[in-house]
Structure prediction request, 988 residues.
Amino acid sequence: MRAASLISNATWVLLGLAVCVYAVRLRLWDSAGPASGFLPFLAGLVVGVAGLVLLIREWTTRPVGQSPPFWHDAAGRTRVALVIVALVAMALLMPTLGFLVAAFLVMTFLLGLTEHRRLGSSIVLAAASSVFIYWLFASLLQVRLPRGLLGF
Amino acid sequence: MDAAHHLISGFAVILTPANLYYCLLGSLVGTLVGVLPGIGPLAALSLLLPVTFNIPATSAMVMLSAIFYGAMYGGSTTSILVNIPGEAASVVTCLDGYQMAKAGRAGAALGIAAFGSFIAGTLSTIGLNLFSPVLVTAALSFGPPEYFALMTLGFVVTMFMVGGSTLKAILMIALGIFVSTVGMDVVNGVERFTFGAVNLTGGFDLVAVIMGTFGVSEILMNIERLARGEVVRGKIRGLFPTRREWRDSALPILRGSGLGFALGILPGGGPVTASFVSYAVERKISRHPEKFGTGVIEGVAGPEAANNAAVAGAMIPMLSLGLPSNAVTALLLGALIIHGVQPGPLLMTQHPDIFWGVIASMYLGNVILLVLNLPLIGIWVQFLRIPYRILFPLILLLAVVGTYAANLNIFDVWVMIGFGVGGYLLVKLGYELGPFILALVLGPMFEQTLRQSLIMSSQSVLIFVTRPITAAILALCAAVAVLFLRAEWMKKRESP
Amino acid sequence: MKTIPRLVAALVILLALAGAAAAQGDAKGKLQALKPKDYPTQPIEFVVVYPAGGGMDVTARLLAKYVEKYIDQRVIVANRTGGAGLIGHTYLATQARNDGYTVGILVNPFWAEDELVRAKGKWTIKDMTPLGFINYDPLTWVVTTDGALKDKSVKDIVALAKDKPGTVKIAIAPDGAFQFLAEAVEAATGAKLVKVPFQGGAPGITALVGNHVDIATGFLAEYRGHLDAGKVRPVAVAGQERSVFLPQIPTFNEGLGVKDIVWTAWRFAAVPKGVPDDRLRYLEAAIDTAMHDRELVEEYRKLGVIAGTQYLKGKETADEIDRFHQAHKEFLTKTGRIGR
Prediction:
């Protein structure tokens, strides 16, 4: 956890710095008053300074005993990673495979994720919910969900 | 007595089977859209606008308005149940509402949200009814400098909604302001932080950011910890608020109504700002501010009342002057125009049936929505019994679709994922997301009005003190800031 | 004996109605003849790059309503907003499918502007094939009827801004026609206005009504309600000739004695290039038919936009757009906005 804090605080400092540099290039002030870079510069400054203060504070405090680990356990971390993968897959597949197919695949994956249930019930549930959501948005609310290569 | 007379004629207009049907339909669709995460009243209105082409203007307006305020009722449902705001205006409800649900008090939270919405909706409609002319004149006197002062007040007041480290909250606010500047600068068209990506020229889509920051991050948190089991630890205790909770909610609801109504009138205010300010105010006034964020009913009652009252507030400039305060009312005006009705100061006299009919339908709509939402509470609470491992994929799917539906742009889904992961990491590191979202929402208007004001005054800062309303609000900001700093100072002195 | 004129009147009305119905049926029949096989089999999408409820959106929705009447297929309006139109323009020019189911409802000068200044080579105006002209709307300047400028003509206002630079505040939307109009007036007369930026015409009108600015820039449709109520008064119209809706109001050219201050929103329909010829002809004809429908022209008139004065089909529209593009390019070069 301490390592995580230090890394994040350092990130703030770097981010703040980068933003300030970019903002200066956008110009801070012009004939009309504050220019495009004015507010980003201030924001970057605060982020950087706050990050620096937090960094120094964290660095100089002696840790009391063992600091709690950042991730509860390795299993938890894996689950989180897999859910993120599933979301990314959804974003990648939806435009090409269409909503229904992509949703079905990703849902099946997610349902099987946290507990290794029988594949059968996961598939049925995934199919049912994909179709239901499709109906809800595409038919009822007239939203144009992406269609895949097969036309649905 | 004129107002009462007109109101009665308004009721006469809408108490026809056709208009009742449209009011009911709009309320239903509004609730549905409010419950579904991502898709909001704006999307629903633009999708359903063609449906109104063949019906009379009054019926169309009744239905479309019902969708608008109906969404405010439904929005709290997913906020409370699963920490996903159905609507930007329901973000704040997540903070305490969800905690209440986790403690088994989802029914009470939903009940107070529904009743608070009803009371606020009705009270604000009365306000709309009686005080439109006065209020609209007052609203018009708000120009860029006045808005700037108001935005500043919004930021200052937010400091009170922070529970943990003030420094971290300030960092979150600065981060939110930075993120809000990504995209095209609205004052001069310069692209900022877009690095050539066309999809970023409009900045990050607010819905996508909110869904990610609150919804996806919460799911990731839960997935990490609970491998099995339900959202709720322990029994679901009772479906209705206790008498104590009723009592505690009464004043927050009244305050929220007033705040929401006032902020809704002002262009750019709207339900979102109203809910945030209400939360901060309730927290500051409360006798136990440290409990906010753990599941306090006031944290639900106030904001939910505020976002409903803001709808009626927003309708005032629209109906009285034909001026839109936000994107939804702009669309409602467009709907009027398509129906051949000219909005403007003459709407009241040229089309009294539309003007008073809509107002009357708002009273009715609030009743319909209350009656609709109460029995649903029992159903929603049952949702919480679904094992999380089945529930969360469904929620994720809804989140993805809802986010995509807003602009039909897959980029928004990526934004949601990105902010979801970011939000998750930030919460783990001990940061609060509320201030971030507030800064993101208020940032653009804050910057725009600052620069507009300085252009108006040819760069003289005196404009902020010579205009009475601006000066008054800024003085209030200073007072609040002093109060806050004093409280912090005292806190530091008490603990070694 | 009064019944005879009444009977005649009724007969005339009946004949007119029948005639209209017949004409409509006739037009529909002509359109049917052009219909390609198996098209359209699903709804057609009109893409608007500005938010719902605005002038562009209303134009598109009205057109959609009438096109639907003639083609027996639904036409849906989709708003793809963001970046003041850039996101929608980029989508239409680079991503939208050219199968005839996506039609862009676009407006010059904003379309040419985006291509010249913001597209950065990713697309050109040739990536869209025009279908036909829809309507146009000249920009105007309005003042309140009870403010400091209430009796002044555009010439007076400009003189005031020249004598006392920095005192006359005008609401504009930055980086587009609104701003260019103000700059053109300044360049032609030596006046110095304080240009306060707003996000579009409507917020500017709000600021005007609240007396936070002295002049607002906008289209008639945006303040018609206030005009009817006598709260605002236009002072000049940025068109080639006077607007039929505001015959008393001079054009900028008339009022200031110049020749080239013309800024109008010129709206047209276009499809991504590469749509099959038969579908292209059909869409072109469908829009032309809808534009000839008197009811649609009437609805546009009620809005205050100018329609039904000329009918341009695809090729003529494309020529107009090219001409415009050229002129706009010169303007941008002259004012130093794009390099050589």
Q: What stands out?
A: Strands of chain C lie at 44-48, 75-79, 102-108, 128-144, 169-172, 194-197, 215-219, 232-237, 264-272. Residues 20-135+266-334 of chain C form a domain with the D-Maltodextrin-Binding Protein; domain 2 fold (CATH 3.40.190.150).
